[in-house]
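Consortium newsletter contribution from the modelling node. Members have asked for a concrete example of what our holo predictions look like. Here is one, prepared for the erythose-4-phosphate complex that several groups have been discussing at recent meetings.
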Amino acid sequence: MKFFVDTADIKDITDLAETGMVDGVTTNPSLVAKTGANFFDVLKDICAIVSGPVSAEVTATDSDGMLREADKLTAIADNITIKVPLTWDGLKTCKKLTSQDVMVNVTLCFSANQALLAAKAGATFISPFIGRLDDLALDGMQLIQEIRQVYDNYDAIETEILVASIRSANHVKDSALIGADVATIPPNVLRGLINHALTDKGLAAFLADWEKTGQSILS
Ligand code: E4P
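And here is the predicted structure:
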């Protein structure tokens, strides 16, 4: 499963990219607003750090406007992926852009039928928002399961399932168990994936025993 990092924070992206775990980045208008920085500057900076897909969301709601915005955004770098909302205008835009070999991430997906529409529009990625479903006491993971099953029923579907709105390490593990293609993960959740008390305890014991030998590997 590919890991995208779900942030527009350059410091977090730089830091996590150094771990070799970052295959791409997703941004949205709320994440960009949080940085307080210029959208184009942020995207340029991110694309200079990460060579994989970097999602940049349009803000127009009509297809012509989305296409005009997409033109400006794709000029930033080759790895810009245009993010469009799951509306008829978004799907129309998706169809046009993907037929011109522009990568498109269809966002704000909350049902398997919506995911099917995005696949038929040729989406590169579909972004089902699992955390926002869980917030309403619905089952985000069940949606991922359903989309996986629907997509696997049809060889012609190449759209990748990009699990979004991830809130926990369990969301990441369950996405991988289901066979989602990508998880876009907030920096704090990504950093937390490594944690295990037995790893810390085991390492402390090994180091303590090594200390007792009085040896050094380098001398
Ligand atoms: C990413 O593409 C989505 O915009 C993001 O994961 C949404 O996350 P949220 O539901 O925590 O805002």
